Amino acid sequence: xxxxxxxxxxxKFSEHWSPKILGEVNDSYVKAVKFQGExxxxxxxxxxxxxxxxxxxxxxxxxxxxxxxxxGEFIIVPRGVEHxxxxxxxxxxxxxxxxxxxxxxxxxNERTQPxxxxx
Amino acid sequence: xxxxxxxxxxxKFSEHWSPKILGEVNDSYVKAVKFQGExxxxxxxxxxxxxxxxxxxxxxxxxxxxxxxxxGEFIIVPRGVEHxxxxxxxxxxxxxxxxxxxxxxxxxNERTQPxxxxx
Lengths: 119, 119
Known about the structure:
- The structure is a homodimer.
- Chain A is mainly β.
- Helices cover 4% and strands 45% of the residues of chain A.
- In chain A, strands 2, 3, 4, 5, 6, 7 and 8 form a 7-stranded antiparallel sheet that branches.
- In chain A, a hairpin with a 2-residue loop joins strand 2 (20-25) and strand 3.
- The longest helix of chain A is centred in the first third of the chain and has 5 residues, at 6-10.
- Strand 7 of chain A pairs antiparallel with strand 1 of chain B.
């Protein structure tokens, strides 16, 4: 039951596309992740995902359009929907998602992070 | 699958202690709420709650201490733990919590909000 400072947590790591666990709320984790460049097209069969931008700006690409998400904005990607986050510059994002969520969803590649660090 | 601007949502209402639903992620709601003054001592038997301050500053009182939570900070209150949020000035807070969560937990009084508006 301690206050968590989000910027202080982001200062603890520099890797991109490697979510860190900041806390748990019921069956969900709150995660911090830095995006830069393109991720990978994927979907999650059973999990919705929330992306809240705290610094920078990202584009969430869908097959039929894309959404810009800037600081103080969030987007919720429903389960089953193919998506790919893209960040032209480094972007800091809070994730709120089910504990079972794998970052690359239905895809396994070099970006897949099955074990996440708690920071 | 639209981008949600948090400040734009907070501009839509002025009541205190009346959470509004901004979105759903799996079994959780994302809510916006404005705090001012003291709430009520309560706990939730089965639900953890996350409070993320976006503007202002609050104190989360526990029976044995209190935590200051400012902009860009959050606190997670585990199920079963008695707490009372206090905000000396108006404070805007994002909540992440199970859909089943009642704002006053085990207490029912004039602050209880069984039906929440989606904005």
